[in-house]
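Help!! Second protein's tokens look totally different from the first
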Amino acid sequence: MKLSTASQFAVPFIIVMFLFLLFFPHQTKSTEVGVRVIKWSPFAKMGVHKNVYAPGATYFFAPVINGWYTFDTKLQNMEMTVSQRGARFGQDDLVFKTIDGNDIALDVIIAYRIDPGMAQNILVEVAQSNRELEEKLVRPISRNVTREVFGTLKTEDFYVANKRTEKAELVKEVLNRLLNPCGVIVESVLPKDYRFPLAYQKAIEEKKIADQMVERFKSEAKATVEEYLQRIQQASGEVNKMVAQVDGEFLKAKISVDAYYEQQVMIAKAIEAEGVAEAKGIEKMVEALNNSGGKTMVKLKLAEALSGKKIFLLPFGEAGGLDVKTTNINDLLKVYGLKKFE
């Protein structure tokens, strides 16, 4: 019995379709991992396949009796901002109160990625796609933790970049502690713009301006004080220089006076020594004159003194003195060849 033409083409077509369905291609992109769920198979255990399918490959298995899920493992940026560029349409920033009770709105970007080795756990316990994972797990936990951590700051602390950075690191640490067991790794928490109510914002800006003025006045006062201190130091230097000069002159004069004093002391000692020696000489001479030979020496010295001298004898009266009344002085002078006394 011959088959009709339609039957001849139908059989190969059925065979091809059967093989195509049996070995249906399933692909993963360059940053995706795949998870296969075996719904029914006479040769394998039903449930999630034990292996994670690597990125950038094609795998063949039947589509109906197998489920196929992919997760993108590249870095995801979840933007929660006031603008419409965020993960959700419309305003999506975080609104909370600071520790001192003021309202604030904060824009935050959470960068996270899926741990490829945890893709099976994510599928079984959390979500079947990246979008579902973010909406059901990453987003609600991130918003709550960020509000709680940043809510411990005072209002003025938000103006200090270092304090915002410290809180962002703390948020990252807490999120990883909560999300890592679920297969999510948070890479960074980036706080962006922050906003206060308009009235309070204006008051803060005015306070900042006032603080800047105060700091400027402090700087100017400090500069003035430093200038005066510098002048005092300069004056002190000049005074010290003058004192040093006066001290030098005084020391110089003292040295000169001390030298003169020492010189005079030496001269006085020399005079004293000379006087003592002379006195001792006189003393010795007196001792010598008191001896028997001393009188002879005196007579000898007297004779030496009278040697060559003319000696005149004058008449004396009975009383033992020169009788001027009875003596003719002129005649007496003539006798001795002297000039007449007028």
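Here's the second one for comparison:
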Amino acid sequence: MRNVALDLPLLFVDVRILARGVPILDGVTLRLDAGEPTVLIGPNGSGKTTLLRAAMGLLPATSGLITWGGREASPPARRAIMFQRPAMLRRSAAANVRYALAAAGVPRDTRAQRTGELLADVGLGGLARRPARRLSGGEQQRLGLARALARDPAILFLDEPTASLDPAATKAIEDIVRRIAARGVKVVMSTHDLGQARRIGGDIVLMHRGRVVETGRAEDFFHAPRSEEARKFIAGELLV
């Protein structure tokens, strides 16, 4: 049974991450709790991907504190991340999932059944034998989701999972994300698409220049933004 309490709440306290002396995250304080999806929005270069990588445990904080369920060190056994363009292994869709299951430590005698379940869950049950690199862009993204779910995560981080996809492929991904969230998985997703943020987000986090500018419930954020940056971003103006 999924135990979300293992890694939640996920806390950033005055976190700075530097790259060659330049702040990529600059004094970020943020709390992520169990519940509906949290959607990160903001212009390119605002720090969304860096925040997701740090939340996964892939990047250490230069200063400040990151804790998972109150712990400063927490192996990411119940966390998974899917990047914007997940690399496809040179093997079938099913073999890609089996590889992810093996990496997650799933017993060999259950991998075949679990592979079928995961592929069916993302609508790829009929494409199990197709080479992963011959799948369409949307199908590859769904396969990436199946591989991430192989870890049976309590928290799933998604970095712009529908970037460059057409509307039909985008809807397919969004439908899967909703089903994942309905099962109790905490989804934290970045997107540049405000419409998608409205459709998916329970909570919204607006980032700009490596900082968290505003957070809040989606309905409050979009109908009564508190900051000038949020008002401009919602109106389609450029944040510079």
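Reply: Different proteins will give different token patterns, so don't panic. Helices lie at 48-56, 93-103, 108-121, 137-149, 167-182, 194-200, 218-223, 228-234.
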